[in-house]
């Protein structure tokens, strides 16, 4: 403990209440304070911490403090602008901290809106202060009654799914597996309606912010009276202003929000009457937080539902293999929507084997023909390519120089600013420089772009089809606020013949005039070193394919590949998720990969790779000692430390160590002991590290 200020030191221990407080500091510890009056668990308090003051949450009432009583400081202020945080919210925080091996304060405090954990918001407002009071003066109405509009007629499969959800007493997880266009949203809305009628709240999660406006409109028009009560339907995502986020969070906490629609962070919203959690596109990687507390909002949703005894619906056209596995084993209920809601055949999927073809500017003959045909028929086409920029690398023909990023072990990607000016940009660290006019090594002016990104494909399409109206939709073309909406509006209005796009175009949009989807360069993803790469590729291509032929018959998807025999492509041709899932699960079972094993990943970063590897080696050695002592010795396997595929990013070198076990409890026990020892080891080695449980990318 740092030095004690005379004003806050406590001398008398009589009639003193001891409080254990979680603070957002990177120390794996809770901190004891005292108070002259009792302070309930879950209450926020302002406490002195070193020279600073911090907002913390009371998490326990220890019978005696961890330090000598005269070293314990007093709480400065009890923040009574809010009642104590609900007990189930506290349990969720505790579980997430334990499961993901993070200090409790680093989990709980960041889960609160900024205004509720910033000391300056409470300065000089001892009795009537705080941001909560300012928000509350806006006077939102109390929970309005909810009556539904007449919902559309459901088909038999949808009825069965809705009934299955409604029949759940207490907790169950229902995997709603429905092909693209099968009407999953309608099932969600019906299930939500039942719960709202019981006077309970619904948490509706979507993977991305840009999917919320569309859904918000559906929810408002379906539950008409919601439109009247300003807080009855609230949206919570990272795109909101601080004030908006606070308002939504408080509406959830107070029960005024009957439906909370949000992205992954919404899983931490307190909801006292929560009756149903819906996780749409449950397989989507965006549910995984990739910094700080690396949680899976999907997995936490299942835990939360089970903790408070309510149903959780996970929906997808391509469920995560983990979820599919749980359903097959009977841990989840399975509801299937096997048919499209509209009587439209799914698009045919054709594989074009590029090994036997000469490509023209990256395009095979069959794809060019198909594009020409759709243009002639007045239909739209989409060329899907998950690589932005002009070309992934610039290369000197005479000496072999390549456009390497000076700070990373990766190529700087060639981008085009306009027709004459090009620049190099590293997609790992953001490094930018003008593209050289001649080779920096040998002076040869003949520098060639190798491969193609969306910009080059756009250029190629314009030269192949000079009369076609081509637009490009990727992170570069949509940087300005509102530009994505503008581009999509052009597409919907029929002012576009061919779209070139990255994964940005694959989600949520319903393009009514789209007749053809062409997929370029999917093989690059297929052979990534990550064992989940085929699963991700399958989901992504199914999703892209699903953009076509939502309303029009005769839609087609053409995939250019050098590996048409691969299981993932064969399954796509058959629209066979279940077959692909069985095949992949059998493969994983044979080699003991998730979901048949559980993993954690220790990643180390240092100026030099050797230091990172050294730290991982020491951590591994330490684990031998720990495991020797444990009863479940041998249940946890630690692999050899290895450098990351892209070793250096922004002049930091990285390595990782994979930890695996067939037993989840054994892994958790081991990690609990092990992670306590790591901070000291890391600081001695001058290495930064992070421990990730259930990593999605390896
Ligand atoms: Zn050269
Ligand atoms: Zn870089």
Give the uncertain stretches in residue-range form: 1-12, 138-148
Our Rg estimate from Cα atoms comes to 28 Å
CATH class of the largest domain: Alpha Beta
| Strand line-up of the largest beta sheet | 8-9-7-10-11-6-12
- According to CATH, the fold-level topology of the largest domain is Rossmann fold
- Tally of alpha and pi helices: 19
- The name of the CATH architecture of the largest domain is 3-Layer(aba) Sandwich
- In percent terms, what proportion of residues is strand? 15-25%
Number of domains: 4
What is this entry, summarized?
Helices cover 31% and strands 22% of the residues. By secondary structure, the protein is α/β, with parallel strands linked by helices. The model is unreliable at 1-12 and 138-148 (pLDDT under 50).
